[in-house]
Fold:
Amino acid sequence: MAPLRSKKKLAVMAVITVIVLLVAVPAVYGVQPDNAGVLYSTYLDWLQGKPVGLAQVNSILPHNVEKAMLVVVDYTSGDPEVLYKGPFMSPMVKIERIPVGTKLKAVIRDGRVSQITVTKYKPVQLLVIVSAREYWGAKFIEFTPDKPLTRVNVRMPLYRDGVGESIKNLGKGFQVTINSIGTMYMDVKILRLHSVLGATEEIDIDHEASLALDSFSQSVSQFGGEPSPTGWECTGAVTTPFEYLAPVPTSNGEMKTVYGHVRYNVELTTVCGYLICRNIYILHPEGIEYFSKIQTGRDPGTIPWNLDKRIHWRSAGNEFKVYFDRSSNDGGVYLSTSVSVCFGEVATVCFSGTVDSYRKTSGSKPVIKVLINSWHGGRLYFAPYSSRGNYYEVYLQWG
Structure:
């Protein structure tokens, strides 16, 4: 084990050393001289045994803009931390590579497929902001830092708000301030459970389970004003942990739609550069606190044609679990909820729009347990997947 660790350390050091050397030739590697300091800082942290890595963030814009500033904010460990603020480029930023266990990985050796145990790392969550003359955009991204250096491409949205230079911003340079101004709660559809006569479903989630939910942002004049309830732009799907564990048993032909009471942190981020300043409000989902509502209806008792049908035989027992572990996860919208909510006493912030949950997450996925109380035939069909990936619900049908 010790030699393996030494090899890993040598590999990490080799990568970082090569990058540091390439700073002398920024045109070759794409690292600007005024961004090179982060490489040395990461190298020094690594020598002290800190779990660090590097990420190069390449933002892709739909069209050219003038006087563009870029901001990269780290949300991985709780409170947001500004990693980069400055001219628009592809900056290298220092990230945390926090080990959270191990996982099996399939590899090909000598023409054979085998499995090896590799380190599993905590996913990194970054917010990327572009602020330019008359345009702005923001987007959350998530990735797993499996390697010491990760390159991520971000297709940024751009929204026109007409904000330009102001003489009042003289001397401010590149500045970013982030203030948490409160908490907003939304009741959002997160899961759906099915049942047929004799077979019950329930949720089986652990403390690491999560679901991806919409985040939002909105630009407001720096000289005052509150965000519009209908002016929010979707800022990407954000992995949101379950903070409440309950089975929600569903039986006797019922179908239950589960709503989660989702806690959103409301932040005001002020971005200044090139005499242009903006106030950007962020709605960031932090946790699913509890199940706020259960909507009950009748289950169709059949499996839609576009789902991947499987069989659980009577001889296999009266209980099984369905894991949404298929790698081909299309990440599409799972459930949509119309929400209208406000918070605040001094400054009121309201949201009115649609919040989507997604068939993806960078954390552990929900699990559905199926319990069979009485058999109606020798097999039970179940369908956990669409033809393109995870579905997060399990249709049942006797056969």
About this structure: Residues 2-22 form the longest helix (21 residues).
